[in-house]
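Hi P.,

Sorry for the delay on this. The queue was packed all week, but I finally got your sequence through. Input first:
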Amino acid sequence: MKREIITTADGSKTIQIKDWNEQYHSKHGAIQEAYHVFIHSGLHLYKDCPLHILEIGFGTGLNALITLLEADAQKLNIDYTGVEAFPVSGEELAQLNYLEELNVLSRQKTFNEMHSSPWEKLVPITSGFRLKKQQKDFKEITDIEQYDLVYFDAFGARVQPELWTYEIFMIMFKALKKGGYLVTYAAKGSVRRAMLDVGFLVERLPGPPGKREMLRARKP
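Then the structure:
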């Protein structure tokens, strides 16, 4: 499928899959969406404890990058697992402008290390952020009560409904520790029902720019 780099409404770039009319991040603002959904509605629930985070859809590394920046700013210790079946190419990464837009050009080496780090190995990127990338299908995740927080950033249910099912959310439910949270930009009724069916407690929250609502789920 043809892919191209586009500029979103907040000036940050993302990858668009033209055949699907689907983007890796919101066309209303890639960085704004990432902060709203995953940092403000997820990471900021935790203040001072070591965290284990699972990201569903590592993609461009934007969510991991801003989590690393928050870990440094808040003095958090984070082990971050990013699952991605189809890694982004180096050519595509070179066209993204997250460091410029976040005003952290000094972190270019850090961003490069995140993407060049070996798969299936936990690698220290900074003193408070360790990254493990896994190249596999989301259905292959078998972790049990390993994570405090899940960033669920798969492609939308419109184009990949199989990623938003009871089966997938049961895998997420099992992977989370008790009391852990899953946050996602999605708000479809079918997605919410699938979460409820596996046992999550689900709340609707105000969405990022361009979306009225998003979902946050907790494992009781």
